[in-house]
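Input set for joint prediction.
Command: fold jointly, output tokens.
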Amino acid sequence: MMADAEPAGRPLLEVEALTKHFPVGRHLLRRAPRHVLRAVDGVSLTVARHSTLGLVGESGCGKSTLGRLMIRLLEPTSGRIVFDGIDIATADPAALRQMRSRFQMVFQDPLGSLDPRVRVGDSIAEPLGILGEGSPKRNLERAAQILSLVGLDPSVMGRYPHEFSGGQKQRISIARALIVSPQLIVADEPVSALDVSVRAQIVNLFQDVQEKLGLSYVFVSHDLGIVRHVADHVAIMYLGKLMEYGVAREVLREPAHPYTRALVATIPPPRPLKERPRAAIVGDLPNPIDIPRGCRFASRCPLVQPICREEEPELRALDDGRKAACHFA
Amino acid sequence: MFTPTVKIVLGAIVVAIFVLVAIFAPALAPYDPLKQDLFSRLVPPVWDARGSVSHILGTDGYGRDVFSRLIYGSRVSILVGVSSMLLSCLIGTLLGMMAGYNGGRTEQLIMRFADAHLAFPEILLAILVVAVLGGSLINIVIILGVSSWMVYARVVYGLTLSLKERPFIEAGRSHGASASYLIRRHIFPHLLPMIVVVSTLQVAQMILTETALSFLGLGLPPPTPSWGNVLAEGRDRLFVAPWVANSAGVAIILMVWGVNTLGNGLRERLDPKAAGRG
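tokens >
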């Protein structure tokens, strides 16, 4: 895959200082919320054309929220989302609806994301209908083509979602995202609900489709093993902020941030009996509505120094071009 | 595959008989339900020693044939029951979906209004409206329809609330679908079974309320052959001619039992989880 070669021209998607705050609780009389949960707290990154960005972090770190913000399934609190030169963070609903076909989403739960009362052929063709494109008959023909692209026989179009296995349902969801020929697919944990035995098949399907159609992915996952396999770039998130961001191969081979190092240490090794460094991550995530001063990872960091509890480190570029938010990287 | 249960079949047969009777009333009724015959007043039914075959269920105080009046009365009951059910179903489903899907202030407004309306006795409202506007078929339908939309609104609101969190709704939004599209294509079809069940049970309720209104003299004006009117007329001579009120009562019981059995059968079939609840 095209790991380091940055394609000419502007990137497909640019996210700048993106934040998403959720109000939590409310005062009895005042309008203002009691607390604010900063699910995404000032994230900037880019997605290159024909490449895959892996978005990694523990559950609750805001990676799924960030994925949804990128295609504006959630309203950002502030920041810019520039898709192919157009700011979609501020686009009005009508203009946004026109653009929706260019970025699609594949969800974690393949059963839930298909309406159980709709035949899969109609489900796959539906996005074309919403766009107001083509006749129903032409759209169904198109659905049949896409279905064979994702490795299912078009003869299953008349069946209902519950008649398929998890892997097949995820293929159907992918077909549904692909039918409008998007340039970007945000995949939110697309294989974590599947049996281990079919995960590899679906991951390979994502890669085959990328080879054939040349689109970009944002691959949201907590599984570094899979991300290492599919991603060209990787962004490591912790409590709504990026901890480390760079070319996947380099970041995962030689992590600069202690958090990344701890995550990498949890990847099952190819030879389990060989000695390896002990996982250096202890304790739970701090309460995300009450993030402590200083570095947000300080409470669990094995290398913590007094400065870490005082001053929050900026995400800064290191010598090899990657970025890390650590005073000691 | 939809396999009907005993309750559904039994209820459907009873309801079908009443519907057929209502449709073919002119052919089935032996007499004009309004024709008075003062020479054959208070003739007992056929099983009484003094009864005659010409009036199977006897006659009332004006010599009108009770059987014919009941046959025509089924038209009123079914017409009022079904059309007021449709009206309340329409209002309640629309408002319930709006409250559930939009949430926020819309939800507060609609659902709090429903709570307030639910606390207000239906009969009292009916008395008020009839006193002001008079009792006609259309007025009765409107009163009954408007005063029971809350049942639908509450059921539909709850279901919509949980449906809109299902991932396929978010998937639809990611494809650029509008709210009205999602409600039409992906929420309403899931509500339909529950709406059918509530509607069926509601028809029985409407028929009973219409009867009660007519009995109180707040329904259709007296000569009209409605079951409630027959019941009210029979009440005056309950000890002299019990057959008038009794046959109206039996007709009401049979009809309501049939509709309720059908409704409960559908509920158990379509929504097994709710079957235990009252």
